[in-house]
Write a structure and sequence with these properties.
- The complex is a heterodimer of chains A (308) and B (281).
- Chain A has 308 residues and is mostly helical.
- Chain A has a domain of 189 residues: MetI-like fold (Orthogonal Bundle).
- Chain A is 72% helix and 1% strand.
- In chain A, strands 1-2 form a two-stranded antiparallel sheet.
- Chain A is globular and about 70 Å long.
- Chain B has 281 residues and is mostly helical.
- Chain B has a single domain, classed as MetI-like fold (Orthogonal Bundle).
- Chain B has ten helices and two strands.
- In chain B, a hairpin with a 4-residue loop joins β1 and β2.
- The termini of chain B are far apart.
- The interface between A and B is large, with 108 and 116 residues.
Chain lengths: 308, 281
Amino acid sequence: MTTVQSPPPGAPSRRPGEIVIEALIVLAGASTVIIVALIFIFLLREGINTFLDIPLRQLFGQRWYPIEGYYGLLPLLVGTALVTVGAVIIAVPLGIVAAIYLGEIAPTWLREILKPLIEILAGIPSIVLGFLGWVALAPIIQNLGAPTGLTAFTGSLLLAYMSLPTIISISEDALYAVPKEYRDGSLAIGATQWQTIWRVVLPAARSGLVIAVMLGIGRVIGETMAVLLVTGNAANIPAFGPGMFFSPVRTMTATIAAEMGEVAQGSLHYNVLFGIGLILFLITFTVNWLAARLVGVNGARRSRGGLL
Amino acid sequence: MSRQQTQRLAVILITAVAVLVFIPVLLVIFYLIASGIGAINWEFLTAMPRNGMKEGGIMPAILGTLILTFGTAIVSMPVSILAAIYLAEYAKDNRLTRTIRMAIVNLAGIPSIVYGLFGLGAFVLAAGFGTSILAGALTLGIMTMPVVISTAEEAINAVPQQFRTVSQSLGATKWQTIRHQVLPHALPGILTGMILGLSRAAGETAPILFTVAAFYVPTLPSSVFDQTMALPYHLYVISTQVPGMPLSIQYGTALVLLMITLTLTLLATGVRTSVRRRRDW
């Protein structure tokens, strides 16, 4: 970290205006902590009734039907889990391999073209991708033989591409951080490029790749608008089996987005939607906290700005 | 299979996967342009919607998005840049600093719909702003803070230490050094982060869903306590809630939104690239 040194003896002392501005600077830094705390407090304040008024047995029930007072969160948890697992299965191999291509194989000129393309992908609003999923992708999936095009898989496919910028850029950083000597040494003793990547570079970059996957998952769990449009919004638990990925589901995020507009403020339904928000907050908090633990907070932070 | 064959096969497979990643991005952009360009004309961009939004233009939604983006900048930029100065220039390696860094990482990870809930609870209801531009801009502003802080801090850290040493050896105070030496050199990098943050804010739907966005308002907003239409929410509404909406208007709206966010994204990367080329240290 580069820092302005504290003044040596005899240096000019701070002027009154500077004391004010430096106080503001400290306050701005601390404001981030205050905001996280406020978000938690407001979610807790509006959502705590979920856990006080509804017996746990019912809360983890299989029926989400708020109009008749059924607040079973299981269908929503399963919906989020299905969409997330599907997206991870698609995005992790694609993302890491694309990072390998960018970092180890692509010629420099091509890399200069492809990297802005990742930023363009990151810059497409989720509602635009959701809209395309709804009008263009869903009919294609239906033509492939699914009873409807609006399924968990449709959501997974969109979310996979939405999480690719995160996964690719962090993976690429992780590969880049592997010292060049490792590669040179491996090639010098006669290994092929692929053997070098597989046996030397990837193991050395492992912890960074784990972070990439975790933060990718964090993005996927919290995504709202795209899944709201393309996953069919059915709060059912699909029958267990491979077919469940091709059933309509409803995620936690989509439930909040779809129902908050129609509930009375202060009603139990309203509280439960905030309760779902609280659960989401705690999940992403844990994921990010673990990721930061694994690499140190600086590494995890870079990953967000890492898109740059 | 010999080592050389494995090597060749691996390169082919890796390249194939890369194609699978990058081609759909191009496809999405070109498909959207091809489908939406037909709807875009002067009237579409500048007229009020007519006939249940099935005719006319989307001007109020475009204007609303621009106002919200501007509001986001006002809310988020000063505090984010000051926070970045704190982290880069003042923070010692202690508990407070680690807590702040942890908070920023977590802010970056909070789902956008949760920001929406927070905005509803804190600004719309508790603060009594109602569903308003003020509540929406505050929500979006807080959401963009992590991106702006991270990029601004990186830009400040990239300014060479000697600049500070020289300035202070000439008798400047710490703040004078930051104000006159560090910030001017870090400005382009800070700008990149700002624009990038705003491009995200302009495209977000979930945070404005309950804080500001209106289905349809016949008049333009006249104060920060008014509701406004906004492009992302408008696209959501016309593609799912209005039966019989012409597909061309839907594609046109999606394209206009994409153009706004992509222009901002490309502007940010453009600033960054040109600065890296011109950097003279």
